[in-house]
Task: inverse folding
């Protein structure tokens, strides 16, 4: 037992000494990539990025000034200041300077708010936070019914899209760092935001308010596309599910029905009309599974179906680990075929 | 020597009453600030919830209220400045606990409170000036 303890302590100390070396590149890498507010790809994120740098540079200059002054009066010139100078320092440095600087920052901050809150220009998305996934509805201008998807947000570039946010049970927060600021989602109360992606590409969004056991695994893919591509994609999403293309997929569809998956999941164009879990009509064409947790390969479908709770703690979907390998493979074929 | 400077019998009472009054007066600038702050928040919240179309009128009303609040604060500040009497006495601080000293110290405190209240009112008005919609 004591040997184990010593080994643990030893491991602990090794980890500690290595930690800075491991953390440094990770921190640097965090400034780029799919989920960074410092690598903006939309007009709202760019404004926030500017604000961050202005605040950071300003804070560094102030820090240097204050500490420089402190160093000067305690180490370089220790002579007592005249009362007149000291009073002047308090009035100028303690009243006028902060008032002007804070006033300027407040004015700058307020000047960027109207754009951040501007209304959308046609497309409206309605996103509902679930535990722990995202229900997504697309409402194109003038639509009577939504086009339903899940765990993936696609937006056209060069135009501002309205995003209405809601939540089913607990508070979540919708955040795509590369595209804009975050906004909380409350049960029973709609909040809204709008985003204007500028560069086509793929990013990652993440729930930013602790919402339960799998909060950290509540992510989503974000794709910004040129308007024409987006329109084509949305048309495809509006279509009912493809019929199974192979015998294996056909068997998979029967297993899907037999196991009662349709009680929770909808596959439009089939008997499956459940609305408890994500809509699976086009799940095969999505970029991830389990709200940004797995990819959408056949293996990942199998892993998800058989190990839901292990992959995502406390998730509501039960693990279908009693399925035979053949059944599982057929089911995965069917789901992957739902493109 | 004349009797002109002899204190009147009720001199101490009068002086105490005046100091008590000026103790109340130093709270008036922050109270004006609080009133302006609450008015701004409540008016905007109610108008945006019930009648967003009236926001333009509400903004003008709030700007008028701002000017009134600033006028009150400036007036209080000037009175306090005279009470502090720094220009004449040259006493920036008033550390001695005598009646005149207390009188001037209260003026000094009131000047500073008027200053921060004025800054508070101006900062509180910037959103009214710069944000044009309820969004």
Result:
């Amino acid at each position: 037992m004591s040997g184990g303890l010593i080994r643990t302590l030893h491991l602990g100390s090794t980890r500690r000494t290595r930690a800075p070396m491991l953390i440094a590149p990770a921190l640097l890498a965090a400034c780029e990539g799919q989920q960074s507010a410092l690598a903006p790809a939309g007009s709202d994120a760019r404004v926030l990025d500017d604000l961050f740098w202005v605040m950071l540079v300003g804070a560094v200059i102030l820090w240097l000034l204050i500490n420089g002054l402190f160093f000067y009066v305690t180490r370089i010139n220790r002579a007592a200041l005249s009362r007149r100078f000291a009073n002047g320092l308090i009035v100028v440095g303690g009243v006028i300077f902060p008032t002007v600087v804070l006033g300027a920052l407040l004015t700058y901050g307020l000047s960027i708010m109207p754009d951040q809150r501007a209304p959308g220009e046609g497309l409206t998305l309605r996103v509902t936070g679930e535990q722990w996934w995202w229900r997504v509805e697309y409402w194109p201008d003038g639509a009577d019914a939504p086009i339903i998807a899940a765990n993936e947000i696609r937006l056209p570039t060069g135009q501002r899209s309205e995003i209405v946010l809601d939540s089913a049970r607990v508070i979540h927060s919708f955040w795509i760092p590369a595209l804009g600021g975050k906004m909380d989602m409350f049960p029973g109360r709609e909040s809204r935001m709008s985003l204007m992606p500028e560069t086509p590409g793929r990013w990652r969004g993440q729930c930013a308010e602790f919402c339960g056991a799998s909060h950290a695994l509540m992510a989503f893919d974000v794709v910004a596309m040129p308007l024409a591509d987006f329109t084509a994609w949305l048309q495809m999403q509006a279509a009912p599910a493809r019929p199974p293309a192979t015998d294996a997929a056909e068997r998979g569809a029967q297993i899907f029905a037999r196991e009662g998956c349709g009680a929770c999941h909808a596959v439009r164009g089939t008997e499956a009309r459940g609305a408890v879990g994500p809509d699976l009509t086009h799940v095969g064409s999505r970029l991830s599974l389990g709200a940004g947790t797995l990819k959408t390969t056949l293996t990942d479908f199998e892993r998800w179906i058989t190990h839901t709770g292990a992959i995502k703690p406390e998730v509501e979907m039960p693990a279908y680990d009693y399925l035979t390998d053949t059944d599982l493979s057929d089911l995965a074929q069917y789901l992957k075929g739902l493109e | 020597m004349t009797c002109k400077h002899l204190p009147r019998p009720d001199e101490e009472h009068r002086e105490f009453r005046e100091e008590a009054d000026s103790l109340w007066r130093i709270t008036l600038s922050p109270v004006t600030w609080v009133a302006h702050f609450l008015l701004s928040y409540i008016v905007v919240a109610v108008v945006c919830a019930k009648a967003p179309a009236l926001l333009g009128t509400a903004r003008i009303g709030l700007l008028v209220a701002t000017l009134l609040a600033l006028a009150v604060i400036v007036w209080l500040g000037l009175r306090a400045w005279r009470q502090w009497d720094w220009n004449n006495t040259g006493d920036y601080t008033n550390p001695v606990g005598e009646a005149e000293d207390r009188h001037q110290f209260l003026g000094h405190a009131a000047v500073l409170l008027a200053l921060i209240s004025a800054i508070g009112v101006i900062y509180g008005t910037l959103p009214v000036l710069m944000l044009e919609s309820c969004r």
